[in-house]
Design brief:
ATP synthase subunit delta; ATP_synth_OSCP/delta_N_sf; 4-stranded mixed sheet; 8 helices; 177 residues; transport; hydrogen ion transport; 14% strand; Peroxidase, domain 1; ATPase_OSCP/dsu
C-alpha cells in the first residue's frame, strides 16, 4: 500500500492544487471518487493491468465514466493512462479526500459505543473534539455491544478509549505487572 501511496501522491496533489485554484474541490472529489470506483470494477481492473495501448485505454475509461468527468478530469485520466497509473486511482481519490479535509480544517472521527448515542451525546462529543482538535468534526457513529459500556473515539492519530472493556484491559495489565 505504501508504494501505491507514493505513486498516487503527485497525482492527488496536482489534482488538489488545481481544484483549489479553480474553486472546484467538491466536484473534483466527486470525479475522483467515481473514477476510483470505475477502476476497481471487476471488468475494468484486468484492462488496466493489461497491455492495451494507453490512448485506447484512456478513451475507454473516459467513455465508461461519461458525464462524470469534466474536461480536466479527462486530462488527468489521459496523463495517468500514458504513465500506466490508472490502477492507483483509488489511492489518488483517498489522498485527495485527506487533502480536502485538511484544507477545510475538518476531521472525521469514528465513535464506537456500547449503545446507540443520543443526539445530545453526539453533540457533546462533537463540541469536545472540536475544542481539542481545533477543527470541524464529522462523527461516524457505530455500536459494538462488546464494549460493555462507554465509547472509543478515533480521530486521525488520536484514540480515546473510554470503554469499560478498555478500562478492564488496562486494569488487568496493571495487576499482572
Amino acid at each position: 500500500m505504501a508504494e501505491l501511496t507514493t505513486i498516487a501522491r503527485p497525482y492527488a496533489k496536482a489534482a488538489f492544487d488545481f481544484a483549489v485554484e479553480k474553486q472546484a474541490v467538491e466536484s473534483w472529489a466527486e470525479m475522483l471518487g467515481f473514477a476510483a470506483l470505475v477502476s476497481e470494477n471487476d471488468t475494468m481492473r484486468p484492462l488496466l493491468a493489461g497491455s492495451m495501448a494507453s490512448c485506447a485505454l484512456a478513451k475507454l475509461f473516459i467513455d465508461v465514466c461519461g458525464e462524470q468527468l469534466n474536461e480536466h478530469g479527462q486530462n488527468l485520466v489521459k496523463v495517468m493512462a500514458e504513465n500506466g497509473r490508472l490502477e492507483v486511482l483509488p489511492a489518488v481519490s483517498q489522498l485527495f479526500a485527506e487533502y480536502r479535509l485538511e484544507w477545510a480544517k475538518e476531521v472525521e472521527a469514528d465513535v464506537v459505543s456500547a449503545t446507540e448515542l443520543t443526539e445530545a451525546q453526539k453533540q457533546q462529543i462533537s463540541v469536545s473534539l472540536e475544542k481539542r482538535l481545533a477543527r470541524k468534526v464529522k462523527l461516524n457513529c457505530s455500536v459494538d455491544a462488546g464494549l460493555i459500556a462507554g465509547v472509543i473515539i478515533k480521530a486521525g492519530d488520536l484514540v480515546i478509549d473510554g470503554s469499560v472493556r478498555g478500562k478492564l484491559a488496562r486494569l488487568s495489565d496493571k495487576l499482572q505487572s
